[in-house]
User: What shape does this take?
Amino acid sequence: MKRRNFIKAMGIGPLAAFSPLETKGFFQDEQIEKKKKENDIASEMDAGVEVNLDYIAWNFGQIKKHVKVPIMAVVKANAYGHGLVKVSKSLEKAEVDWLMVGKLQEAIELRRAEIRSPVLNFGPFLKQDCEEIISRHISQSVYTDDARYLDEIALKLKKKASVHIDVDTGMSRTGISHDQALPFIEKIASLSHTEIEGISTTLTEDPDFDQEQLKRFLDVCSVAEKKGIRLGLRHASSSAGILNSSQFLLDMVRPGITLYGYYPNSKTQKEDLLNLKPALKLMARVIFIKDLFPGDSLSYHRVIKAQKKMKVATVGIGYSDGYAPQLGGKGFVLIKNKRYQVLEAVTANHTMIDLKNDPEIQIGDEVTLIDSRKESGLTADVLAELCGVSDYKLLISLNPLLPRKYVDG
Assistant: This one.
């Protein structure tokens, strides 16, 4: 929306009283449209996320060409901040083989959204969850004796429980230890109403130790298969494993960060083997502009004291929205395709920007905080390096309540 129309829409200035409310703009989605129909005013001052679904489909296609094995797309943590349901529907349209989530509630949400692709819940479950898991055709990762609850409920429902056995080969996070795995696998295989769909492990992404992990995992699989146990799909590779060596691909891979246009580390990011396209933009608006004069202070604890005349913009986004406070004093934003420094004043709902006394910036102007264009220098990997975190953390930290707009092309 152009600034003139924005000012009219917000009821600011002399034109406001003579103009109908306009809500079409960057942050409009189905909920805003619904509110519009109900004559409820939806503010365009709030921050929002734009996700390019075509870019996610592109990234998926690039991975698919590279690995040439089935793909279990990792959509946990709200699809790394991009939006669980919309991203999953886009991947389903692209003919993804599996979807993986980290919490049972995410799997249930996918089923409620009528997503039919196979879904693996890598997270925990309780006995009282088993009926819903089975009824909704959710596959469950298992590594403790709680797997028997799934079998008991499946028997009661006259259905089959579908499981993937999680083997710990050195990550020491979850999973049955590789040296205790065989008796556990035999126990699962003996259950009358449980089907083993797959077996997995998680690599530590230490290049040398990953080799040892792979050996431990394949040894377990080999012994079990020699005993006549059908293990289904063997999978170990996340994005890092996919880019490491073809020996880690096995029967299926589990890409996460690469689906969204980024790589697991700076080395692979620079190589850009897959020609990935970052899919997300984080946007907000200038909500206030103030001139500071020598001696004036800014924000809590007077974190900035003006030494000379300054023009400062308040942007309507803060760390409660997931914008990293570490970017204060280090990061920058784009307004009208020009760079402006983020000041050391990122609070829960506001971020302060040094406008360098630029008279062109006005209230209502759109601010880009994370960009999908690599040439802008404002992609998540660049910002993550600036504030000393991973691009995973930067993206996943985005508040799920931020409005998300989905575009194609």
Summary: The two ends are 19 Å apart (CA to CA). The mean pLDDT is 91.
